[in-house]
Amino acid sequence: MHASDFDYSLPPELIAQEPLPDRSAARLLVMDRTTGAMVHRHFTELIDLIAPEDVLVLNTSRVIPARLRGTRDAGRGTSGAPTEILLVRELEDGSWIAMGHPGGKLKPGRRVRFGPDSEAEILEVLGGGLRRVRFGGTLDARATIARYGAVPLPPYIRRDPTPADRDRYQTVYAEHDGSIAAPTAGLHFTTGVLDALRAKGVAVVSLDLHVGPGTFKPVETEDLDAHRMHGEAYEVSDGVAQTVNQRRRAGGRVWAVGTTVVRTLETVALPSGEIQAARGETALFIHPPYAFRVVDRLLTNFHLPRSTLLMLVCAFGGYERVMQAYRQAVAARYRFYSYGDAMAIL
Predict the structure, then answer these.
(1) Parallel, antiparallel, or unpaired: how do β-strands 254-257 and 297-301 relate?
(2) Long-range contacts for 219-227 (Cβ within 8 Å, ≥24 apart)?
(3) Which residue of 61, 238, 291, 297 has the fewest C-beta atoms within 10 A of its own C-beta?
(4) Mean pLDDT of 296-303
(5) Lowest mean pLDDT among 159-168, 222-231, 270-279, 310-319
């Protein structure tokens, strides 16, 4: 398949710019991947779709306010012009992997000031739009993020982040700092929905995949095999592996909440279909054709054309059926992308 196979037409007004007042009020398009049958429901009806013997897997990675706006040093060859740094992850030596705009101006040795007490120096250019930076001044990186950082809303949300986004662009179960984008399928859950699933007997477990550029890096080549994703850190505990494996052996189904959970589970999957506890980095790129070893059910949002996220969903649900579901969602005026509606593939 080619990248252009994953194009579709979307009216701009269907791109959700704000979250709904109630997290769980989203619509839910339910698709049977065996028959292609589709039903329009609401998110809270997900409780009826998950059987007591199933296991629901969440990504508890927490979004950090990783977008830092500053100015380049006004000195030799620089203008003091506005500059933006998007932090990706911290390295063991205290420096950070980051993306920057305008990239052509952010050469090694350049400094970006965020305030009188904080600045970052560009140490090296790593390729793929990434740089290594080190913080200086009175504030360290964490203090700079706390004081000057903004929620890294994706560019298709055409507004500046508000204080409300610090809560709403975050799942209610987020625990571990590390993501620069939300695992958006989880944004619909409330504590009430999760409590109802647990009361029903569903096992609710969690892992971490810290969402980085690999998740949303554009596919810039028609040949999918030529696309390379950035690595993203993940961790799956012994307890989670045991629960998932026990539920599968007992006939339960594994529900993945979002594409990040799918990629993590498939990364740690054994040939038997069971998973192992592990931590590391994954650059797994799932696209058609792909034989899934662990995941039985997928809850996801609607994704951008030509994105690796849409390609993963098509690999899971079947290319023709997923693309038809997207056409139906457009016709039915579903809300798209991060703050949009949801889709369950059975």
Answers:
(1) parallel
(2) 219/3, 219/306, 219/307, 219/308, 219/311, 221/3, 222/2, 222/3, 222/4, 223/2, 224/1, 224/2, 224/3, 224/285, 224/287, 224/311, 227/3, 227/285, 227/308
(3) 291
(4) 98
(5) 222-231
Task: Using the structure block, give the residue that is written with the tokens 């063991």.
Answer: 92
Residues 263-272, buried b or exposed e (16+ Cβ, 10 A)?
A: bbbbbbbeee
If you compute the radius of gyration of the chain from its CA atoms, what whole number of angstroms results? 21
Give the H or E element holding residue 232.
strand 232-236
Burial of 328 (0-12, 13-18, 19+ CB in 10 A): middle
Which positions ≥6 away from 165 have C-beta within 8 Å?
A: 151, 153
Q: Are strands 38-42 and 27-31 parallel, antiparallel or unpaired?
A: antiparallel
Its sign, for the CA torsion 155, 156, 162, 163, is negative
Q: Which residues pair with 90 in a beta bridge?
A: 96
> With 0-12 CB in 10 A as exposed, 13-18 as middle and 19+ as buried, what is 251?
exposed
Distance of alpha carbon 162 from alpha carbon 159, whole angstroms? 9
Q: What is the mean pLDDT of the chain?
A: 94
DSSP 282-301: E-----SS---SS--EEEEE
Q: For residue 235, which amino acid is it?
A: E
Amino acid at 137: G
Asked if 142 contacts 176 with a C-beta cutoff of 8 angstroms, the reply is no
- The strand pairing partners of 174, in sequence order, are none
Domains annotated on the chain, with CATH = 3-63+164-345 (3.40.1780.10), 67-148 (2.40.10.240)
Contact 345, 313 (CB under 8 A): yes
Which residue in the block uniquely carries the two structure tokens 């409590």?
A: 195
pLDDT tens digits along 71-95 = 987 555 445 789 999 999 889 899 9
Q: Is the peptide bond before 271 cis (omega within 30 degrees of 0)?
A: no
Q: Judge whether residue 217 has pLDDT over 70.
A: yes
Judge whether 89 and 233 are in contact, CB under 8 Å. Answer: yes
> What are φ and ψ of residue 124, in 5° steps?
-160, 155
